Amino acid sequence: MLIAAILVFPSLAPNPYILSSGVIVLNWAVLATAWNFVGGFTGYISLGHGALAGLGGYATGLLITKAGIPSFVALILAAVLVAALAVPIGFAALRVRGASFVIVSIALVLILLLVFQSWSSVTGGSRGLVVPRPFPGMLRPEHHRAFFFLYGGLLILALATWWLLDRSRFGMGLKAIREDEDKAESLGTPTFAYKLTVFVVSTAFTALAGGLYALWFGDLDPVFQFSVLTGSYIVLMALLGGVRNLFGPVLGAIVVGIALEYFKVEFGSTPLHLVTTGLLLGLVVMFMPDGVIPSVTGLAQRLRKREQSSIREFTAADLAEQRKRDREGATS
Amino acid sequence: MTLETRGLRKAFGGVVAIDGADVQFQPGKVNALIGPNGSGKTTFFNCVTGMIKPDSGSVLFGDRDLTGRAPHVVARAGVGRTFQLCRVFPRMTAVENVLAAVRPGGLLHGLRSAHRQDETERAHGWLTRLGIEHLAGAEARNMSWGQQKLLELAGVLMAEPKTILLDEPAGGVNPALLDRIGTLVRELNAEGRTFVIVEHNMDLVMSISDHIVVFDRGRPIAAGPPAEVRADERVLGAYLGV
Amino acid sequence: MPSGALLLQSIILGLLLGGLYALLAAGLTLYFGIMRVVMIAHSAFLILAAYLAWWTNDRLGIDPLLSMVVTVPLFFGAGVLLQRGLLSRLRPVTLTMMSVLITFAIALIIEGLLGYVFSGTQRRIQLGYGTESFNLFGARVAVVKLIAFALAAVSLAGLYVLMKRTQFGWALRATIQHPDAARLVGIDTERTAGFGFGLGLATAAVGGTALSLDTTIYPSLHWHWIGPLMAIIVVGGLGSVPGAAAAALVLGLAQSLLQIPMGATWAQTVFYVALFATLAVRPQGFFGGRLAQRF
Q1: What is the pLDDT of residue A215?
Q2: Cα separations (Å) of B106 from A91, B98, B113, B209, C165?
Q3: Does residue A194 carry a pLDDT above 50?
Q4: Which among A158, A253, B81, C6 could disulfide-bond with A237, CB atoms 3.0 to 4.6 Å apart, if both were Cys?
Q5: Which residues of chain C have pLDDT under 70?
Q6: How do residues C86-101 score in pLDDT, each as one tens digit?
């Protein structure tokens, strides 16, 4: 269903602007799904994934401009480098429980912003970094279309990986960590190694999305690449859609991503963006911490006054709801 | 495989919780660890299972030194445990709770399905054995206290430990279940599993254990078979403050 | 080699700044001690208080210090409301994570509203005594910095006395150390926790006023404060007030001294370096902090 939507959308898009919005929404979808490797499985909330994407973008851009490496080789290499960097970061952040992880994730954004703004001889500083286009001869609509498919491929890869982990023993161990970390450890799960591994996987996908963005957009500004706001949008998307569902973050990305684009067109950039984001985040956390999908299905089930008795049934209902929303979301 | 500690010591700030404990549990038997509240029994469990690092002393399991090792290492060495305030994974189903105790092995093994048939069958086997098979698909948070206690035990058993530490198995359970837990421990012990039980219910302790260690102020003051311990003056002193 | 006077000046300024850090970190530590909450919005409230002080001076023409008459009780009330109305309603299991998001959301809302009401323009209080300074062995120390430090020091001392000497302080410490035991001896831990949050937020009101005296403020400034403050509470050992105070002074001093060779921007990295180093080497913090191991 999702694959079909991705294949069809570019031919349905009435103009390049809508198509470019589609690219942006897919970028969000990849980021939210990548975030969900950590957030969904282990329950650790990262507010710093925006910065990891920014790092992927800058790494890609710098490898192309400073080292003269071909665009897509640079993209892969950048993801590997950023994932490698995630090892020491995760080592510091994941040895103890959640609070330190959140603190490190925010600190990461702040320190990267500081470094990339100030170290202008390498990063271009506040002037930004111009990344050459990978397809020089291409017209803009074709360029958008190419990246739409690239992002679509990346999204499907990320979703497939998440699905694979979700049903694996490794995933079971991660979910045990989310439920009760001490207990998981006392049953023999090497919690630290598990958390670190999944954090690195999550970082790799995030960096790939950031790198693709650099290639597509062609211009990086530290203020936007290392913004706490980006990280909070990602969290909002994942939570809104539901972190326990394969397609939850995608759904959240479609809803929030489209809303963001809409507000940008209607109202421009105002401080009220922050207020709206904050209010939405607060409402989701207070009233539906499990996301829209479980809330809606839960409500539907209560209306039907039927006790859910097996997990299988629950998942099937979720998926049906999910598919419906995906269709609606992708074509609106 | 004998589980023993030598000179184990742990202090929290100025409060000495365990004060040089030399304890040797008898392999293949049901051991009980008793003592008044605050005598350091749970801290002792936490030190043995790696949840807390002891200040000094050592924890040995057979010829392996488990001192200060991470909890998962201790678990993999064959020492399983339950918690005083029974801990299960609340938003997983009963069968998933049991399956979560499966060792994934290496990374590639870790990518295998978590619901492999042989293991799922084994998990259902434990649920059946403990009499909660009918709840296999229910989320643990919807289960009663007693059912959660049985579920916790099922998870521990799934990991195939050689020695099982139970922290207050009788806490908050009704008399019928108490009987069942007593019988279960004896049966599981007869199959070759060593037990160490921290328990306040003296009827249960006296009826199921072969060897009793009495703790007071962070160290063992007596050890021996139930009849012997019951007659020991120091034990009465510790409990009654005589 | 920097001159002796410059060095002395940096040391003095570092200690003065460290005092303000210490007060604010004490607030953050209170929240964490009471509920294991990492309160991201602390510095947003700090900037809000600074704006209110600026506004008081700009519109009413009175001394910004007087704004505390209103902001301190107001923030205390807001803290109580925040704890009772929002944080205490979260599920205990996911409290730490979800409270981060809630307080993060509040920070965004405050930043957005400040930007909307006062615009993004940078603001600075113009005071009669704003440019005055005095000489101390060749070091120039601005009077306003000294006032800011004095405010922080007096508040910290007040907090200390409150915690150690008063009945409320005892109840609060009991609640932090062992909520179940505190309930058993008849302490209303819910109410105490609410007041504890109020107290924490009141430190932000005092700190914000002190900050407004000699700092140019703008809505997104709070991000420059929350990073260093969180680094301080981790280095100090989560949950330890004396640890946070010690870490605040040490890191404030380090920042000030590093400004000489590295410049103001790069000197800020000292906080993050200290944060990563602490977590990698000694996650429980360098100054005690009983709680930190598990979080």
Answers
A1: 94
A2: 20, 20, 13, 38, 57
A3: yes
A4: A253
A5: 1-2, 130, 287-295
A6: 888 888 778 888 899 9
Which tens digit of pLDDT belongs to each residue from B160-201? Answer: 999 999 999 988 888 889 999 999 999 999 999 999 999 988
Mutant choice from B66, B72, B108 vs A, greatest count of A C-beta within 10 A: B72
pLDDT of B65: 94
Domains in chain C (CATH in brackets) are 4-294 (1.10.3470)
The answer to whether the CB atoms of A103 and C38 lie below 8 A apart is yes
pLDDT for A174 equals 93
> Which one, of C153, C114, C125, C118, lies nearest residue C214 by Cα?
C125
Token pair belonging to B219: 């160290």
List domains and CATH numbers for chain A: 2-331 (1.10.3470)
Angle at A55 between CA A201 and CA A161, to 5 degrees: 20
State the angle between helix axes of A169-179 and A16-42 in degrees (0 to 180), rounded to the nearest 10. Answer: 70
pLDDT at A301: 77
B137 near A CB under 8 A: yes
Taking an 8 Å cut-off on Cβ atoms, the answer to whether C231 and A107 are in contact is: yes
SS3 A179: helix
The whole-angstrom separation of Cα A267 and Cα A220 is 23
Strand partners, B34: B214
Name the average pLDDT for chain B: 89
Q: The CATH number of the domain where B145 resides is what?
A: 3.40.50.300
Q: Which of residues 191-230 of C touch A (CB under 8 A)?
A: 219, 223-224, 226-227, 230
Contacts of A171 in chain B (CB under 8 A): 114
Q: pLDDT value at position C249?
A: 92
Residue A283 distance to chain C (closest CA, Å): 9
How is residue C229 written in tokens?
Answer: 């403050």
The ipTM is 0.88
CA distance A322 to A326: 6
Q: Tell me whether C65 touches chain A (CB under 8 Å).
A: no
pLDDT at A291 (0 to 100): 80
The DSSP letter of residue B93 is: B
Is residue B188 within 8 Å of residue B195, measured between CB atoms?
A: yes
| Token pair 């499966």: residue | B102
Q: What is the rounded distance in angstroms from the CA atom of residue C136 to the CA atom of residue C133? A: 10
Name the domain count of chain B: 1
Residue written as token pair 């938003």:
B91
DSSP chain C: ---HHHHHHHHHHHHHHHHHHHHHHHHHHHHHHHH----TTHHHHHHHHHHHHHHIIIII-S-GGGGHHHHHHHHHHHHHHIIIIIGGGS-GGGHHHHHHHHHHHHHHHHHHHHHHHH-S--B----TTTT-EEEETTEEEEHHHHHHHHHHHHHHHHHHHHHHHSHHHHHHHHHHH-HHHHHHTT--HHHHHHHHHHHHHHHHHHHHHHHHHH--B-GGGHHHHHHHHHHHHHHH-TT-HHHHHHHHHHHHHHHHHHHHHH-HHHHTHHHHHHHHHHHHH-TT-SS--SSGGG-
- In B54-73, the residues whose Cβ lies within 8 Å of chain A are 70-72
DSSP assigned state of B25: P
Q: Domain limits at B101?
A: 3-240
Instruction: Inspect the interface and report whether the beta carbons of C115 and A229 lie closer than 8 Å.
Output: no
Is A332's pLDDT higher than 50?
no
Q: What is the pTM of this model?
A: 0.89
For testing the chain A interface, which of C279, C281, C291, C293 should be mutated: the one with the most A CBs within 10 Å?
Answer: C279
pLDDT tens, residue by residue, A263-308: 888 877 778 888 888 999 999 988 888 887 777 777 777 777 544 4
Option in C105, C266, C293 nearest A118 (CB): C266
Residue C228 CB contacts under 8 Å (≥ 6 apart), including other chains: C21, C251, C255, C268, C271
